[in-house]
Automatic annotation (TrEMBL):
Gene3D superfamilies: RlpA-like domain
Pfam families: KWL1
Keyword NADP: no
Keywords recorded for this protein, A-Z: Secreted, Signal
Family to which this protein belongs: Belongs to the kiwellin family.
Protein name: RlpA-like double-psi beta-barrel domain containing protein
Source organism superkingdom: Eukaryota
InterPro entries assigned: Kiwellin-like, RlpA-like_sf
Source organism: Parasponia andersonii (Sponia andersonii)
Signal sequence range: 1-33
Length: 195
């Protein structure tokens, strides 16, 4: 009888262990599925003379270099981690053409942003406000454009590379509101959320 109880305890322990392994594998596969992976690459083209605006330290595509493209962005949470970049939304600025949301240009003195393709979500966040936090401060900015993660290195994208999948591309007004020293404008780790 004692041997039966020991094997029953072993059996229960094995079933419990197998259950834990199944649970771990299920959670791991869900986390893996939520990751955003590159959906392809685009080959860099040399911009025609004067066709890539390097205002705000924007990069121009390099001939032959392969750039990753994304159709997704990391999942949005109440405190989504992102990388803030500097963009001009004015006519003639480094943002290229008019904003996707309203086919208009916007003053750099207005807190406006472009979101990576996945977060832009086909325009579903157009004219919605987001709260950006960094440097011990927060600012509310309106989404007016897409920072295209699916294409780049062409005239429509000012011969600039595709955006990474975690970009909040912001006007000068956002940088000022966050209290970032002008010398440090260009790239900053931030968090953001829908306002």
């Amino acid at each position: 009888m004692k041997g039966f109880i020991i094997s029953k305890k072993k059996s229960t322990s094995i079933i419990f262990l197998v259950g834990l392994i199944i649970l771990f594998l299920t959670l791991s596969s869900q986390v893996e599925a939520s990751k955003c992976r590159p959906s392809g690459r685009v080959r860099g083209k040399k911009p025609p003379p004067g066709q890539c605006n390097t205002e705000d330290d924007s990069d121009c595509c390099v001939e032959g270099k392969m750039y990753k493209v994304y159709e997704c962005s990391p999942p949005v949470t109440g405190n989504t981690k992102a990388y803030l970049t500097l963009n001009s939304f004015e006519d003639g600025g480094d943002g290229g053409g008019p904003s996707e949301c309203d086919n208009s240009y916007h003053s750099d003195d207005t807190p406006v942003v472009a979101l990576s393709t996945g977060w832009y979500s086909g325009g579903s966040r157009c004219h919605n406000n987001i709260t950006i936090s960094a440097n011990g401060r927060s600012v509310v900015a309106m989404v007016v454009d897409e920072c295209d993660s699916t294409e780049g290195c062409d005239k429509d994208h000012d011969y600039q590379p595709p955006c990474a999948n975690n970009i909040v591309d912001a006007s000068k007004a956002v940088w000022k509101a966050l209290g970032v020293s002008r010398d440090d404008w260009g790239g900053l780790d931030i968090t953001w959320s829908d306002a």
